[in-house]
Amino acid sequence: MTKKEFQIFIGKRIKQLREEKKISQVELANLCEFERSNMSRIEMGNTCPSSYTLYKIAQHLEVEVYQLLKFDNINS
Asked: Domain for residue 15, yes or no?
C-alpha cells in the first residue's frame, strides 16, 4: 500500500464513521477545532493526519483510534 492509498483509506474510514454517527463534516471539524477545509482534506485523502489529529477525531466519533485504521469495511 502506498502512502496515498493509506491516506485515502483513513479518510474513507473517518467519513464512514462520521456518517454512521450522523455528524456533518462541519460539525466534526468544529468539535475537533479544525477548519472544515482541513477535515475535507483528511476525508479526501489529501493529507496524512498526525497521531494527535487521529486521536481528536476518534475522541469526537466516540471510537478508539485503532478503529480509524480498520479498513475491512470501507466502501469504495
From this structure: yes
Q: What is the pLDDT of residues 36-64, one digit of tens each?
A: 999 999 999 999 999 999 999 999 999 99
Q: Cell 466519533: give the residue.
A: 61
Structural domain span for residue 20: 3-68
Whether residue 45 contacts residue 8, with contact meaning beta carbons closer than 8 Å, is answered with: yes
Residues 6+ apart with CB under 8 A from 11: 42, 43, 44, 45, 46
Report pTM: 0.88
Q: How far apart are CA 76 and CA 67, in angstroms?
A: 18
Q: Do 68 and 7 meet the contact criterion of CB atoms below 8 Å apart? A: no
Residue 53 makes CB contacts below 8 A (sequence gap 6+) with: 32, 34, 42
